[in-house]
Design brief:
Blueprint lengths: L1 H9 L2 H26 L3 H24 L10 H24 L6 H6 L16 E4 L3 E2 L7 H15 L6 E2 L2 H4 L9 H8 L3 E10 L2 E10 L5 E10 L3 H15 L20 H16 L3 H15 L4 H13 L8 H18 L4 H13 L3 H14 L4 H13 L3 H14 L4 H13 L3 H14 L4 H13 L3 H14 L5 H11 L4 H10 L10 H10 L3 H9 L24 H10 L12
Helix pairs in contact: 2-3, 3-4, 6-9, 6-10, 10-11, 10-12, 11-12, 12-13, 12-14, 13-14, 14-15, 14-16, 15-16, 16-17, 16-18, 17-18, 18-19, 18-20, 19-20, 20-21, 21-22, 22-23, 24-25, 25-26
């Protein structure tokens, strides 16, 4: 080996290698500029880079023969070493080409390489955009809420354009603070353009810069800078949204003169509280209480602020889903806030979504459907509305419609945990267990701290008789939710082993809801069905009230297959206003 290293020095291979790398780097830079100017496909650039990589190995071989002692012949050992270098280099390049396009995000890839999604098999739609979080340039991290809020308001405005695909907040904000290659952002979110910018707030002055970039070529399609007073912030958002609509050649249904942002004068103090609440409602969980407080402050300052009333309605109606307030009090307050928003502005899409969520819990199916349709007519690109509508369709037993709507929501928000969880529930109801397992694994890989994802993963594993996996997922989910997992272990043991079913049944009936918040009455009924205790399950189903029902606990899941023909089950469906037959499901 020492002799081999000496001969490398004699033949100046290191000098040749460094010279070639410098040359190749310069060529790649020139190619990148040319590719952007002429709009070359990415594949051409990849092939040229691959050719340069192969050329590097060729250059080393030539340097070996034509160095200071070029007359020397290469030994057999040296031939083997060069062959190994060629094989390893080729293998790395092949691996690079196979793996890189499939990355969802660096964080997800680091957690689990199997979690990455495959590259889109269909071309990225030309009329599509992701609004990345605007950078807070104020110098104070506490002002992030303001720049994030401006970003979300622009995103919501663009979601009203019927022919424009807009990546949802959850997925777009996954790239916050990350210096990502915009081409990769485009591939992950399946968008052709990205809007990025910055916000600098000082007193009542604000400077907003924005630029629209083509993710395929790297071209800057449009850019602008605005220096305005806080009282003019909505006008700026509307100008930005209209400029993007013009560049992407999409028009609002109401005509090019239609405003995409409500330009009614809003007290800047109320707007500030509204922007503070937006990231809190997006975070869900305990943060919802703070969101409610911020939105209440906003409407107290400006009682005619429709968007703040709608956000307050949604936040209040979500509280029972996270066990933060009883259904009765939260529902009444949420309904009143949503109706107040619509009194002020009948075109407030989020208020219709909030009302529809409320009607769904009350089993007022036709009213919920009508409210969802109104919301989606106003904002057809709203992923939150599409997701909630998909959950409603699942609860109503319209399974094929639910899958179509959830698929649409997932295209808008591919990194969302709740959308992936809902899609799993729909696939499970359709008895597509393998597909459901694939979907929920992506959710838990991308969102390992999402408790509901693990509970749903346990359901799917149970239906597939993977009881060890079900116990593992329940253990993780319960601990994340702050619950004692022991009772869930007993339940799975009872399903797996008939000898343990009596003990498991007693455990589910006796479990305290204080210690096991996710063991709601609908969930208890499901577990009783899985344990084979049909009598207690059907008795409980007769008395179930208008409770918050998680998707996996509704009556269309396979747990209820054995009793679909029974009179008491049909009577329960009648009381809920549901049809006897599921749309699109296999017969049990």
């Amino acid at each position: 080996m020492a002799e081999f290293i000496a001969r490398l020095k004699q033949r100046k291979l290191v000098q040749w290698a460094l010279a070639y790398i410098a040359f190749a780097f310069a060529v790649i830079q020139v190619l990148d500029v040319i590719a952007q100017r002429f709009g070359w496909p990415d594949q051409i650039e990849k092939l040229l880079i691959l050719a340069l990589a192969i050329g590097f190995l060729v250059a080393l071989v030539l340097a070996w023969y034509h160095g200071e002692r070029g007359a020397q012949r290469v030994s057999g050992t040296e031939i083997v070493i060069l062959a190994l270098l060629l094989a390893i280099g080729g293998g790395l390049l092949w691996r690079y080409e196979r793996v890189l396009p499939s990355a969802i995000s660096p964080a997800a890839a680091q957690r689990n390489p199997e979690a990455v999604a495959t590259a889109p098999v269909t071309p990225i739609p030309a009329k599509s955009i992701a609004v990345l979080p605007f950078v807070n340039m104020s110098g104070d991290a506490k002002n992030d809420y303001f720049s994030d809020g401006i970003t979300e308001e622009i995103l919501d405005a663009l979601a009203q354009l019927p022919n424009l695909k807009v990546a949802a907040r959850t997925s777009a904000f996954a790239f916050k603070g990350k210096a990502e290659d915009l081409r990769k952002v485009g591939e992950v979110l399946d968008v052709a353009t990205v809007l990025e910018g910055s916000v600098q707030k000082s007193g009542d002055e604000v400077r907003i810069t924005a630029q629209l970039i083509d993710t395929r070529s790297g071209y800057h399609l449009w850019s602008e800078k605005y220096d305005r007073k806080l009282t003019s912030i909505f006008a700026v958002e509307d100008e930005i949204s209209k400029a993007i609509a013009d560049k992407l050649q999409v028009q609002f249904a109401g005509g090019s003169g239609q405003s995409l942002v409500a330009r009614k004068a809003v007290d800047p103090r109320a707007h500030d509280f509204y922007l503070r609440g937006l990231p809190l409602i997006a975070a869900r969980g305990p943060a919802l209480r703070e969101a409610v407080a911020d939105f209440q402050q906003a409407v107290a300052i400006d009682p005619d602020y429709a968007q703040a009333w709608a956000a307050l309605a949604e936040a209040q109606l979500l509280l029972p889903h996270y066990f933060l307030e009883p259904q009765a009090t939260a529902a009444a307050a949420g309904e009143a806030a949503a109706k107040r928003a619509l009194e002020i502005d009948p075109d407030t899409a989020s208020a219709y979504v909030a009302l529809a969520m409320h009607y769904r819990v009350l089993w007022r199916w036709s009213e919920a459907d009508e409210a969802f349709r109104k919301a989606l007519k106003i904002a057809p690109g709203d992923a939150e509305a599409a997701d909630q509508y998909g959950q409603y369709l699942l609860a109503a037993g319209r399974l094929q419609d639910a899958l179509a709507e959830i698929d649409r929501a997932q295209k808008l928000d591919p990194l969302s945990g709740i959308i992936g969880a809902t899609r799993t529930n729909v696939l499970t109801a359709l008895h597509r267990f393998d597909d459901a397992q694939t979907q929920i694994r992506r959710v838990t890989d991308l969102h390992p701290d999402y408790a509901l994802g693990h509970f749903i993963a346990a359901d799917v594993a149970t239906y597939l008789r993977g009881y060890a996996e079900a116990k593992s997922q329940l253990n993780i989910g319960a601990r994340l939710a702050g619950e004692n997992p022991d009772v869930y272990m007993l339940l799975v043991n009872g399903i797996a082993d008939p000898a343990q079913r009596a003990a498991a049944t007693r455990a589910v009936l006796a479990a305290s809801t204080d210690a096991h918040q996710r063991l709601t009455q609908p969930a208890r009924i499901k577990w009783l069905m899985l344990l084979g205790d049909r009598e207690d399950a059907l008795d409980a189903l007769q008395h179930i009230g208008n409770e918050v029902m998680f998707g996996q606990d509704n009556v269309w899941q396979p747990a209820f297959d054995p009793v679909r023909g029974e009179t008491r089950f049909k009577a329960a469906l009648t009381r809920m206003g549901l049809p006897y037959a599921r749309q699109g499901a296999h017969s049990p």
